[in-house]
C-alpha cells in the first residue's frame, strides 16, 4: 500500500501501533492484523476496514436541470435491506423529482436548491447501518426566475 500507508514511529514507544491509510481506496477493504513483539511478549489485534463509496453519474460538475444519479455502495458483506437518502439532514421521499433504487438516487431535474450535503444510509440484513456523505455542487443560476435589471445608457450593468 505504499506510499499511502504510514506508521508513527514516535508513537510506538507509548504502545500506539496505529496504521494510517490516506487516501483510502475501495480495494483497501478487508481484515488488517497488527503484531507487536516487545521483550518476550507478543501483542496482536485485528481490524476489519469497511469502505463506503459515493459516486456521481455523470461526474461533476452537475448542471442545473440535467439528470444525475448518486450511488452509495459499501464493502459490507450482508444483504442490503434498505437505502435512505437525506438532504441537509431531511429524509428525501420518493417523488417525481427523486427516485431511490438499490443504493442509488436519481434526481431527474436538479435545481440549485438540491446543492449541499447528501447522506446515504444503508441498512443490512444483519442490522448494520452504514452511512456516507457527499457534498453536491450544481452549476446554474441562483436568483429570481424573471430578473429585471435597469441601467442608464452609458453605464455598466451586471
Automatic annotation (TrEMBL):
Domain Ig-like positions = 50-131
> Which BP terms from GO are recorded?
adaptive immune response; interleukin-15-mediated signaling pathway; positive regulation of ERK1 and ERK2 cascade; T cell activation
PANTHER family tied to this protein:
MICROFIBRIL-ASSOCIATED GLYCOPROTEIN 3, T-CELL SURFACE GLYCOPROTEIN CD4
Species source reads Merops nubicus
On the tree of life, the source organism's domain of life is Eukaryota
Q: Name one GO molecular function term.
A: protein tyrosine kinase binding
Assembly, in brief, is: Interacts with MHC class II (MHC-II); selectively recognizes stable complexes of peptide and MHC-II. Interacts with FGL1 (via the Fibrinogen C-terminal domain).
Q: What is this protein called?
A: Lymphocyte activation gene 3 protein
Q: Which GO terms describe its cellular component?
A: external side of plasma membrane; extracellular region; membrane raft
| Protein task | Lymphocyte activation gene 3 protein: Inhibitory receptor on antigen activated T-cells. Delivers inhibitory signals upon binding to ligands, such as FGL1. FGL1 constitutes a major ligand of LAG3 and is responsible for LAG3 T-cell inhibitory function. Following TCR engagement, LAG3 associates with CD3-TCR in the immunological synapse and directly inhibits T-cell activation. May inhibit antigen-specific T-cell activation in synergy with PDCD1/PD-1, possibly by acting as a coreceptor for PDCD1/PD-1. May function as a ligand for MHC class II (MHC-II) on antigen-presenting cells (APC), promoting APC activation/maturation and driving Th1 immune response.
What keyword terms does UniProt attach to this protein?
Adaptive immunity, Cell membrane, Disulfide bond, Glycoprotein, Immunity, Immunoglobulin domain, Membrane, Repeat, Secreted, Signal, Transmembrane, Transmembrane helix
Cellular compartment(s): Cell membrane; Secreted
Q: Which Gene3D superfamilies match?
A: Immunoglobulins
Q: Topology in the membrane? A: Single-pass type I membrane protein
Q: Which family does it belong to?
A: Belongs to the LAG3 family.
